[in-house]
Write a structure and sequence with these properties.
The complex is a heterotrimer of chains A (155), B (292) and C (804). Chain A has 155 residues and is of the alpha+beta class. In chain A, 34% of the residues lie in helices and 15% in strands. Chain A has two domains: 75 residues, Beta-grasp domain (Ubiquitin-like (UB roll), Roll), CATH 3.10.20; 70 residues, [2Fe-2S]-binding domain (DNA polymerase, domain 1, Orthogonal Bundle). The N and C termini of chain A lie far apart (45 Å). Chain B is an alpha+beta fold and 292 residues long. Chain B is globular, with a radius of gyration of 19 Å. The chains are: A alpha+beta (155), B alpha+beta (292), C alpha+beta (804).
Chain lengths: 155, 292, 804
């Protein structure tokens, strides 16, 4: 079946079977491999993208469900030459090591920053609990999100 | 792990959904997908037809009718958590739903989906039973109301008939002297509960308890109604440690949990008692108007 | 359009990323195995056994092949005819059973999840559809799911031609243990249980193979920690030569040891690729990873320690039973258990040590390496024994450690097992830890809280760790060296190929920094590459805390050689001598003259007449770096110095237990960590914190479980629960830098925290349970286990909760 959606600010069409997940289609058909597959069960958050501005597990969304919707992935956040402040902060505070969970971390944190004003560290931990990381022990990620939240509030 | 092939139907109306569900024996409903899709990705569920009900309008209303609040089955968990109208009219739902998975899950998951999925470890079925709510089940031939106590009959098993769609949930609107509390023990924030307790307490003008409900999750194949154990509370004007211990003893005797890797039967029983005391204390305070 | 908060946000973070790798990882432009999309890519899915122990009477793939979109299907029997077999390359060990196995099981399956057939199709979806059409006729056999049961007289045999289920049985005796026990004032006996865990990198394993029939060349992209060692193994199995096979390890989503074995699926992909005209990929999904990947750590230790009444340890006996699951894994899956036997004496000076190791095969997923590689188990047991001795003698456990620690003046010290410890002083390290936590005050405070009825405890542990080891004794080949190729390009930029393989440790940044120091070229002008066997003759990968020591040493050696050559060229260009020519901040100086490095580089390639007479053009070296102080085999007495150098650490933990739920809260965790010369403190701390997180996970959150018939119970991430945000306590890390004698002065860094932390936590939990006399003798201290300990020692759960 054919599905049309708005992806990172552009209209795209894909041809896919209903059983293909949004994650599958992003990676296999749309060339956007920045969103990674880790459990395909909704229990690790690595595949988190924004669907109409809300974070979702893209492995749990069948592609027909995004017909006419807006999807934002890591490829729509910052750019190697101009990192988004959250990306810059994650680097600064060493909130990534192997990078595999990082796109999920970024997308989850973006929703947090847009939803909660002045999140405390506990708020950040609660909110981000949907993404698992095995490398960092989380402190660098929380430091980074905390730094961006603090400065965002000041703007 | 990739799902097996299926025919996808985007239902544009309730009739279309119930027609398809009525016609195909192994058709399933796709609402939030947060319980269904993991099963399909593991190929533990291989329905031939998936009926997507996300396009049906009017399934996510919140309506107040006299002493009842009716929540549409497509109300997302995230809305149950944050919508001020819902947190006011169904505080126990709002409090419990925070424990459902993570933000990503709650952005998609639905009230109806959780209730119909009937996972004994999940929060909302226990909440439904604690509130003595009613389910509206709609089929091609009309709709009927199912009382919570008649709804859950086994692990992942409800009394919804083939061809029936859960369309709304009716809950009593809280009175000014009603107090509600949910608490659970899970290994990590957002995990399924090892044990969870929903408590409801009502007090009269003199502060005496007239009504108490206790329902447990994770303690049996379905939500376990432990309200009988709360009988010692009726008529009391205050909660003492002695009476709480008596209630907890009753709860320990009233549950027969299955042990698994997440918790032995004994551990679950201990947690159930601890959570019973915690939730009763909180619910009582809230009924008194303290700690709202 | 509303500008969102996140878009409005600014940060004082600099826009230059801290690590080179960060730019692509942060923007989703990493290139992990699953991201590779050559044209015509096909997908391989593996049919896996549903039984724990069974004969395969037949496999029928006919219906699978008939499915549209399916290109090929293979059974073990079919591939066995033309494919080489794996072995563990250790024929010289008489008490190790010699086995061979193929890329797929043929006659028998030994665990649920064992690979028995493969399907190749146009998509993973179709390949999985095809799997469901394969029919297998199993003849069930009684399973062995427990090592102790596996050792019983009448236990079913996994290998019917073996007399028992012992895969490896080794013993070693050092010093005079009988005499030590005879002379002792007391002997303490205890049994310690180490549970089964999984390393769980967020990216599973995977391999993509492309074979060019026209040239006979195979390229295999594999998420592997050791590309060259994998190449050697793939060549054995496929019959191709090392000149025909190229392994490329792309960006990796973690490794932690489970990507350091040479998996049959990786060889399967190679073998299948050779039969198809298209590239083919296998990506291990999470279910496969948890059930048919690699598990770790499961051992039971029966230990006896003989000591004097002043706490001095005279001797130790340990009998280790390791449940190794299926043994069909190269490199040797039970290698960690062998390491356990070698490091148990820890930082203590006793020389009388006897150890027996029985590796028992069971019908479970193979056991293999996971960060720490057998050391967490050894250190746990030894550090618990020390605390138990202290309990018996009513001594402070710190004092028992002091009395037994190898004295700093005795270093370098040869341990009972032959390890030549060259590190900083252990008592000095311990002192630094105790100072940092204000030990006497903390002890008193904890005691006071215990008086008041709280379950609070303080535990200390220490460790010394062999790092950058020689692999020969465990793998039958490979040694203890590393290689690097360093080229200064004509424009003065630098390219380095190193034989280690980063899986998140930031090597592109770390090695660039090292080379930058030697070449005085800014790190931004240095490109570091790893993982591609095409560019470097050999390498030994990243595992065993070896990268800074061996990779760093190789990079330093190569950079120095190239710098020296440039000095000679510059001297020539300046009319001076190398002795009088100096390199400072990218410029060569001799007297009043100077020439920038880029110009010297240009001379080496573009204006070669400027070179000294007889000098070869170019600025490129391939070096092999072997410190030369490790042994490939134990000597006749069983002693072996396996490590190029040793790292050490000490940890202290304060815990509080909720007696009603069994939840342990870590209130304080302090580590003193000595990995020699530090290259990048932020990256190092990231490694330490990650190791701490895994230690917290293994201690309080994780266990791999099977049922009584060998069916795995932890098959999803909701069953195998690694810690999430908010689950890792803050910790304080204090660095000690005792330089090693090796190039750069480095010691291994990545594993220390995972080795010492579980022991400190267990000692703290034991201390907290002191009032009820519960003993901690197991590594799983998750809430229900602690609650059980309390219950068994008479502490009923109080439904009223903890009274504050």
């Amino acid at each position: 079946m054919k599905i049309s959606l708005a992806l990172n600010g552009e209209s795209v069409d894909v041809e896919a079977e209903p059983r293909e997940s949004l994650l599958d289609v992003l990676r296999d058909q749309l060339g956007l491999t920045g969103t990674h597959a880790s459990c395909e069960q909704g229990s690790c958050g690595v595949c988190t993208v924004l669907l109409d501005g809300q974070s979702v597990m893209s492995c749990l969304v069948f592609v027909p469900q995004v017909e006419g919707r807006t999807v934002r992935t890591i490829e729509g956040v910052g750019h190697p030459e101009a990192l988004h402040p959250l990306q810059a902060a994650l680097s600064e505070y060493h909130g990534l090591q192997c990078g595999f969970c990082t796109p999920g971390v970024v997308m989850s944190a973006l929703e947090l920053l847009d939803t909660v004003e002045k999140p405390s560290r506990v708020d950040i931990e609660r909110w981000m609990s949907g993404v698992l990381c095995r490398c960092t022990g989380y402190s660098g990620i929380v430091d980074a999100v905390n730094a961006v939240a603090a400065e965002g509030a000041a703007t | 792990m990739k799902a097996a092939p299926f025919e996808y139907v985007l239902a544009r109306s309730l009739t279309e959904a119930t027609d398809v569900l009525g016609e195909t024996e192994d058709a399933v409903v796709l609402a939030g997908g947060q319980s269904l899709v993991p099963l399909m990705n593991l190929r533990l569920a291989q329905p031939s037809v998936v009926v997507d009900i996300n396009g049906i309008s009017d399934l996510n209303k919140v309506e107040r009718l006299n002493g009842t609040v009716r929540l549409g089955s497509m109300c997302r968990h995230r809305r149950l958590e944050t919508d001020p109208e819902i947190t006011e009219l169904a505080p126990l739902v709002s409090e419990a739903v925070v424990h459902v998975g993570h933000v990503q899950i709650r952005n998609r998951g639905t009230l109806g989906g959780s209730l119909a999925h009937a996972d004994p470890l999940s929060e909302l079925p226990a909440v439904l039973m604690a509130l003595e709510g009613e389910i509206e089940a709609t089929s091609a031939t009309g709709s009927r109301m199912i009382a919570a106590r008649d709804f859950y009959v086994g692990t992942f098993t409800t009394t919804l008939e083939p061809g029936e769609l859960l369309t709304s949930v009716s809950l009593p609107v809280p009175g000014t002297r009603d107090g509600f509390a949910w608490d659970e023990f899970s290994r990590r924030h957002g995990d399924f509960a090892v044990a969870g307790i929903a408590a409801v307490v009502s007090l009269d003008e003199s502060g005496s308890c007239t009504y108490a409900r206790l329902v447990g999750a994770g303690l049996g194949a379905t939500p376990v109604d432990l309200s009988g154990s709360a009988d010692p509370l009726i008529g009391l004007g205050e909660l003492s440690d002695e009476v709480l211990l008596a209630v907890a003893d009753g709860v320990a005797e009233g549950v027969d949990p299955t042990g698994d890797i997440h918790g032995s039967a004994e551990y679950r029983r201990e947690l159930a008692q601890l959570l019973t005391v915690r939730t009763l204390r909180t619910a009582w305070k809230r009924a008194e108007g303290v700690d709202r | 359009m509303t500008v969102t908060t996140s878009e409005r946000a600014r940060t004082t973070a600099t826009s230059v990323p801290r690590r080179r790798e960060d730019t692509r990882f942060l923007t989703g432009r990493g290139s992990y195995l699953g991201d590779l999309r050559p044209p015509g890519l096909l997908h391989l899915a593996v049919m896996r056994s549903t039984q724990a122990h069974a004969r395969i009477n037949s496999i029928d793939v006919t219906n699978a092949l008939a499915l549209p979109g399916v290109v090929a299907a293979f059974t073990g029997a079919e591939l066995a005819e033309t494919t080489g077999r794996f072995s563990h390359h250790l024929p010289m060990i008489p008490t190790l059973r010699q086995i061979e196995w193929g890329v797929l099981a043929v006659d028998k399956v030994l665990f649920v999840g064992e690979a028995i057939a493969a399907v190749v199709a146009e998509s993973r979806h179709l390949a999985e559809d095809a799997l469901s059409l394969i029919s297998v006729d199993y003849e069930d056999l009684p399973p062995v799911v427990d090592a102790k049961a596996g050792l019983a007289e009448d236990a079913p045999l996994l290998y019917e031609d073996w007399p028992d289920n012992l895969f490896l049985h080794m013993s070693a005796s050092h010093g005079d243990v009988d005499e030590a026990f005879a002379q002792a004032d007391a002997v303490l006996r205890e049994t310690f249980t180490h549970h089964r865990v999984a390393a769980l990198p967020m990216e599973g394993l995977g391999a993509m193979g492309e074979f060019e029939a026209a040239t006979g060349r195979l390229t295999l992209h594999v998420s592997t920690q050791s590309p060259h060692m994998l190449r050697t193994t793939i060549c054995e199995v496929t019959g191709l030569s090392e000149a025909q096979v190229r392994i490329v390890a792309p960006d990796m989503g973690g490794g932690f040891g489970v990507k350091n074995h040479f998996m049959r699926e990786e060889a399967l992909v190679a073998v299948v690729a050779m039969r198809l005209p298209y590239p083919v990929v296998w990506q291990q999904d999470r279910f496969e990873h948890l059930t048919a990947g690699i598990h770790s750590r499961q051992q039971v230790h029966e230990a006896e320690v003989a000591y004097r009444e002043n706490g001095k340890i005279l001797g130790l006996r340990a009998r280790i039973v390791a449940d190794v699951g299926s043994p069909e894994l190269y490199m040797l899956g039970c290698a960690p258990a062998v390491v356990t036997t070698g490091v148990m004496p820890n930082t203590y000076d006793f020389q009388n040590y006897e150890v027996e190791l029985q590796c028992v095969v069971t019908n479970k997923c193979p056991i293999g390496g996971y960060r720490g590689f057998g050391q967490p188990q050894a250190i746990f047991t030894m550090e618990r024994l020390v605390d138990l001795i202290a309990d018996e003698l009513k001594m402070d456990p710190v004092e028992v450690r002091r009395i037994n620690n190898i004295d700093v003046d005795a270093l370098p010290f040869t341990t009972a097992t032959g390890a030549i410890l060259d590190c900083g002083g252990f008592n000095e390290q311990l002192d630094e830890l105790l100072d940092a936590i204000d030990y006497p005050v903390l002890r008193a405070q904890v005691a006071a809280e215990r008086e008041a009825g709280k379950f609070v405890g303080l535990g200390v542990a220490q460790m010394v760790e062999p790092t950058a080891p020689n692999l020969h004794s465990l793998a039958g080949q490979f040694g203890g060296f590393e290689m690097a190729l360093l080229t200064v390009q004509p424009d003065g930029h630098v390219s380095i190929h190193v034989g280690t393989k980063s899986q998140g440790q930031g090597h592109e940044t770390v090695f660039a920094k090292l080379a930058s120091e030697v070449l005085s070229v800014p790190a931004e002008m240095i490109e570091v590459h790893d993982g591609d066997t095409r560019f470097l003759p050999y390498g030994m990968g990243t595992w065993g805390s070896r990268s800074a020591v061996m990779g760093g040493g190789a990079v330093l050696k190569a950079a120095t050689q190239v710098r020296d050559k440039m000095v000679a060229i510059a001297a020539n260009m300046l009319g001076s001598t190398p002795e009088r020519t100096e390199l400072r901040e990218g410029v060569f100086h001799a007297g009043e003259g100077e020439v920038p490095l880029a110009e010297v580089a240009g001379a080496a390639y573009l204006h070669t007449f400027l070179l000294p007479p007889g000098m070869e053009p170019g600025l490129s070296v391939v070096v092999g770096y072997d410190p030369g102080n490790t042994s490939p085999f134990p000597d006749e007495s069983g002693k072996l110095n396996v490590a190029a150098t040793y790292a050490s650490a000490a940890a202290a933990a304060v815990v509080e237990i909720d007696p009603n739920t069994g939840v342990v809260t870590v209130r304080d965790l302090t580590l003193v960590h000595d990995c020699g010369r530090i290259i990048d403190e932020v990256i190092l701390e990231g490694q330490i914190r990650g190791a701490i997180a895994q230690a917290i996970g293994a201690t309080f959150f994780e266990e791999v479980r099977y049922d009584e018939i060998g069916q795995p119970l932890t098959t999803t991430l909701l069953d195998y629960t690694i810690p999430g945000f908010g689950d890792i306590p803050d910790s304080r890390i204090i660095h000690r830098e005792t330089p090693s004698n090796l190039l750069g002065g480095f010691r291994g860094a990545g594993e220390g925290a995972i080795i010492v932390t579980p022991a400190a936590l267990a000692n703290a939990v034991h201390d907290a349970l002191r009032p009820v006399g519960a003993k901690v003798t197991q590594t799983n201290l998750g809430p229900q286990h602690v609650r059980r300990l309390l219950r068994e020692n008479g502490v009923k759960a109080n439904p009223l909760g903890v009274t504050t």
